[in-house]
């Protein structure tokens, strides 16, 4: 089956997701109750939206409460697939394609099959693929299952400002790189390019005198920005033509990105091989040959960032998570800073 097409005259993301949520008591309409062992997070390390959920789940220590299935980095126009697993079938859900879980609940599901998705294990039905509230709910609804020392990624006192920051990061940066890459006209591309770098300049200024987006500790806002920054030089700069500057040429953002990368939960969930394989092999209307570039050199991600001088502690009064479970570790061949224990070791 073909890879599908992505370029549009003026790219607009389809944001019509399954709006169900998993909440503490599941009492509302379109709500499911929090219950350890009931749901499986289906993700792909290649996808920035799914990478958010992988990071938040790890930071909060939800591995025992919510199992995780990982799709391969490439997909066709039909579905993400479990081609990394033995027999190319998810060992818990027993399905070869994520589409099977969507179709189980919504026969003839008419929209794209996206990750991350929460799937109810017993029924095999998709619960939700609404990635933005999904991670906030992991922070606010699953508190009974958080590890000791888990960070507060969505602190109540900061939510009003955080929501504004995250909205701008989403529209101008997270989605802004896609507006550049999938633009089908020169004018749409140039408008998207200008908006993207206006926002990056704003972030560069904001992060010059504060260690993290909201101050002294990591929050959901940092998770959301990090997944785009981790892909910037490897994919977005060249493949999506976001080429005014590389991330490595923006001092505050580059230091900030390295600071997060070297923080447990961030770099140890980053699979550069999957990232490059996905974008360059799947987007054949942008990269017809499917050739995956060898670069960039990843050595810089492990270098000293100097952000400690700004003060603050990534986890505040909490603690970092321990090493990732053995079955969930990124292949060190895909990220040279990961050791055999699954943890990032700065150079």
Which characteristics define this entry?
347 residues; Glutaredoxin; 7% strand; 4-stranded mixed β-sheet; Glutathione S-transferase Yfyf (Class Pi), Chain A, domain 2; 6 strands; 32% helix; 2 domains; alpha/beta
- Characterize the biggest β-sheet: 4 strands, mixed
Task: Give the total of beta strands.
Answer: 6
CATH topology of the largest domain: Glutathione S-transferase Yfyf (Class Pi), Chain A, domain 2
Tell me the name of the CATH class of the largest domain: Mainly Alpha
What fraction of the residues are assigned to beta strands by DSSP? 5-15%
Write down the domain tally: 2
Count every helix, treating DSSP H or I runs of 4 or more residues as helices: 9
Helix and strand succession? EEEHEHEEHHHHHHH
Please give the order of strands in the largest beta sheet. Answer: 4-3-5-6
Question: What is the approximate shape?
Answer: globular
Question: How far apart are the first and last residues' alpha carbons, in Å?
Answer: 43 Å
Q: Uncertain runs with pLDDT below 50, 5 residues or more? A: none
Q: What assembly state would you assign to the polypeptide chains in this entry?
A: single chain
SS content category: alpha/beta
Mean pLDDT: 95
* Percent range of helical residues: 25-40%
Question: What's the SSE blueprint?
Answer:
Blueprint: E1 21-23, E2 31-33, E3 39-43, H1 48-60, E4 67-70, H2 99-105, E5 117-120, E6 125-128, H3 131-140, H4 159-174, H5 176-181, H6 186-206, H7 220-236, H8 251-261, H9 272-282
Parallel strand pairs: 1-2, 3-4
Antiparallel strand pairs: 3-5, 5-6
Helix pairs in contact: 1-3, 1-7, 4-6, 4-7, 7-8, 7-9
């Amino acid at each position: 089956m073909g890879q599908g097409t992505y370029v549009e005259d003026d790219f607009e993301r389809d944001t019509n997701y399954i709006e169900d949520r998993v909440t503490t008591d599941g009492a509302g309409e379109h709500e499911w109750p929090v219950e350890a062992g009931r749901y499986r997070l289906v993700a792909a390390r290649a996808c920035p939206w799914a990478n958010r959920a992988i990071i938040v789940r790890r930071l909060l220590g939800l591995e025992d409460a919510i199992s995780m299935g990982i799709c391969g980095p490439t997909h066709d126009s039909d579905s993400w697939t479990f081609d990394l697993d033995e027999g190319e079938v998810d060992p818990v859900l027993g399905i070869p394609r994520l589409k099977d879980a969507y179709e189980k609940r919504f026969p003839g599901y008419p929209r794209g099959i996206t990750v991350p998705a929460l799937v109810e294990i017993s029924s095999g039905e998709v619960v939700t693929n609404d990635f933005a509230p999904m991670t906030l709910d992991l922070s606010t609804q699953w508190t009974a299952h958080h590890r000791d020392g888990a960070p507060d990624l969505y602190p109540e006192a900061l939510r009003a400002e955080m929501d504004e920051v995250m909205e701008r990061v989403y529209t101008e940066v997270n989605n802004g790189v896609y507006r550049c890459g999938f633009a089908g006209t020169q004018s749409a591309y140039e408008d998207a390019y200008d908006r993207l770098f206006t926002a990056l300049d704003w972030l560069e200024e904001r992060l010059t005198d504060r260690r993290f987006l909201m101050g002294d500790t990591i929050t959901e806002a940092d998770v959301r920005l990090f997944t785009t920054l981790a892909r910037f030089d490897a994919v977005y700069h060249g493949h999506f033509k976001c080429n005014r500057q590389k991330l490595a040429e923006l001092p505050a953002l580059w230091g900030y990105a390295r600071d997060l990368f070297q923080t447990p939960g961030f770099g140890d969930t980053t699979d550069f091989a999957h990232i490059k394989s996905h974008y360059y092999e799947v987007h054949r209307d942008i990269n017809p040959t499917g050739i995956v570039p060898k670069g960039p050199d990843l050595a810089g991600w492990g270098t000293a960032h100097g952000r400690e001088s700004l003060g603050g502690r990534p986890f505040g009064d909490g603690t970092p998570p321990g090493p990732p479970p053995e079955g969930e570790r990124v292949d060190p061949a895909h990220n040279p800073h990961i050791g055999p224990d699954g943890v990032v070791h700065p150079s």
